[in-house]
Amino acid sequence: QKEVEQDPGPLSVPEGAIVSLNCTYSNSAFQYFMWYRQYSRKGPELLMYTYSSGNKEDGRFTAQVDKSSKYISLFIRDSQPSDSATYLCAMSAIENFNKFYFGSGTKLNVKP
Amino acid sequence: GAGVSQSPSNKVTEKGKDVELRCDPISGHTALYWYRQSLGQGLEFLIYFQGNSAPDKSGLPSDRFSAERTGGSVSTLTIQRTQQEDSAVYLCASTIPNGGALYEQYFGPGTRLTVT
Q1: Are the Cβ atoms of B31 and A101 closer than 8 angstroms?
Q2: Chain A residues close to B97, C-beta within 8 Å
Q3: Tens place of pLDDT for every residue, chain A, 112 residues?
Q4: Nearest CA to A35 among A58, A16, A1, A15?
Q5: Number of domains present in the structure of chain A
Q6: Record: contact B41-A98, CB cut-off 8 A
Q7: Which domains does chain B have, with CATH numbers?
Q8: Which of A43, B43, B52, B65 is deepest in the core (most CB within 10 A)?
């Protein structure tokens, strides 16, 4: 079993839709949770991060962590064609925070 | 300022040949990571450097893989006797660790390696 599971998609939505991206994980020691966005032929860039449980909002993006279910989500409101990319979740544990475990990424396509 | 750079951007090599991939981190970043990204597999951790030492090299898949970092800056990932399963995008990231608090890794554009 992989440490982090993520549906690869692709996910295709019309412009303006609300997008929900999710990851599940198996290691209860994970405390740091991150979302990266990766455009084609580019390196990933950090979008949002949260520590432990709860929600965090940044503009059109909201990250949620449910540690009891070992489930994290990224919501994108009013999606734009420029949001079309692959979204990767990543996580690490406090005792070894240098080691990040990534999901396989979900490819999102926002149609104009 | 300049971001993380990697060279070459693309590399095609014959099975059995050795390859060297280079990473230039952001100036002043003490920590450097190598990852491998295969199609549909996400990012696979290979090795982590703090300065010139590698406290965690647990992700290197075999003894054909090695990495070094000199002067606390440039790093080279070497793959000996390449195999077709080594074909992937190799990504480098750098950062400044912040005493246990979460910190952002800055990624380079990657080197796309194809072994024929």
Answers
A1: no
A2: 98
A3: 678 999 888 999 999 999 999 999 999 999 999 999 999 989 999 999 888 888 999 999 999 999 999 999 999 999 999 999 999 999 988 777 778 899 999 999 999 9
A4: A58
A5: 1
A6: no
A7: 5-11+26-99 (2.60.40.10)
A8: B43
